[in-house]
Amino acid sequence: MLAPTRPPARGRLVVAAFGGLLGLALFLLARRALIDDAYITLDYARSLAFHGQWALEPGHQANTATSPLNVLLLAGFSLVTRDPVIAVGVLLVVALGVLGWALSSIGRMHGRPFLLPALGVAAVAVCPLLASTVGMETYLAVALVACLARAAVYRRPVEAGVVVGLLVLTRPDLVAFGLAALLVPALFRRALVVVGVAAAVALPWFVTSWLVLGSALPDTVLLKVGDHWGPWTFGNGLLLYHDTYPAAVLLSVLAAGAGVLAAVVTVLVRLVRRTGPELELVAVWGVGAPLHAGVYVGLGTAPYHWYYGPAIGALTMLAVMSLAPAPRPVRGLGIAAGATLVVVGGGFLVRHPWSTPPMTTNWATAEQYAAVAAGVPAGTVVLSPGEPGTIAYYCDCTVVDAFSDRALVARGLADREAAGGPLQRAILRLNYARLRTGPPMTPTMRLVFSETGPGVAASSPWRAAGVIRVAPVLVGG
């Protein structure tokens, strides 16, 4: 293996700046087409930044923000920009800049700190599935997964532990990449250090959440686990998306498929020759990606498209960075193929009509939900139609939903405990041992989807055209 050396600052800064520019360009495209779950995150960030509360709706403490790190960072940037949407752009620039820095550091191990890392960050930036998650934690997660691979390549267990802790704070399921990183011998020998540092970084939040918010894990674990869409789960969900977004899905999985091929070839070369490419990237990205996907398969979740993001991002990086030690003809062919995919993907994003992202499961666009919110009388307590984030962000009202009202979560908790086995009940009781809720909010109005009638015209590629209207809540209904 090449001896770890400190990459020159110029190489890292150039690729980091390139990543930041790509992040800015992507934000300018996507800023008016954020998905509803991104707005849920923005609701939390705004409540924290301007009201000092962990809540979707100020005055109603909740714990449905799956990514505490994303919320904390967006809240911090919101304090500076005074606008949570602009904060999304700042964080996206930072995340892709960090991604470029990490890939440049990895590329320097083979004397390639510029072209391949730049190609890698571009491939991640233009991936349609990832671009459809702007405002959520996906790009932050991919950047941290890149930093974890850097720590593995440079054999730095303390650094790896810090990154694993941050990954867990980004999403608890991202611990799968930390487990994969322990396959690297240099980190496995110092596993106690990696685990100890990761715990020191992540545990304070989860303890605070348990003590203050009433549950260590967010309520989204309760709401999303086992949440099938009929026959569709995470395991077969990309087939469902392909029916509606064939080009976006194809462009998203091509590079990831190349990453799987790169992992197989790298391992085979190493087995046959007994020497050759090191396996750190294969361990962190090539094993981490399917391990992370396996977590969702095991949890039986519905196929929300952002769940696929970390695995697709990791395999995309592997496809590009595995070219560094490859023979020149193979490397040249791979660079040409990667550059072609980046150009096609970038063109796809630029030509896409950004009333919605390239992939979405929302029933209406952000603009349509904002129009609905404008029609709700100020101060009204209104029942959500099932997608509360955008309406709550733009409405001078209080939106009632399981994401905002923990009394509704408590009802779901009782049902889940009754249906679960002994182990599941024990876990739920421990997690929610300190949960205390007040009476549920009482809505006086509700938002209703219908095929025809008065209201705001609403449609998306995921749902046929209809209208959303504000209606009174029927007594006893």
Describe this structure in words.
With 477 residues, the protein is mainly α. It has two domains: 9-33 and 66-351, no CATH class; 366-472, no CATH class. The protein contains 21 helices and five strands. The protein has helices spanning 9-30, 36-51, 68-81, 84-107, 115-125, 128-131, 138-153, 157-170, 175-181, 185-188, 191-213, 220-224, 237-244, 246-273, 280-299, 309-321, 328-351, 366-374, 389-394, 406-419, 422-431, and strands spanning 381-383, 398-400, 445-450, 456-460, 463-472. It has a five-stranded mixed beta sheet, with helices on one face. α1 (9-30) runs parallel beside α5, α4 packs antiparallel against α5 (115-125) and α7 packs across α16 (309-321). The chain is globular and about 75 Å long. The protein starts with 8 loop residues before the first helix and ends in a 5-residue tail after the last strand.
Summarize the structure.
The protein contains 21 helices and five strands. The protein has 477 residues and is mainly alpha-helical.
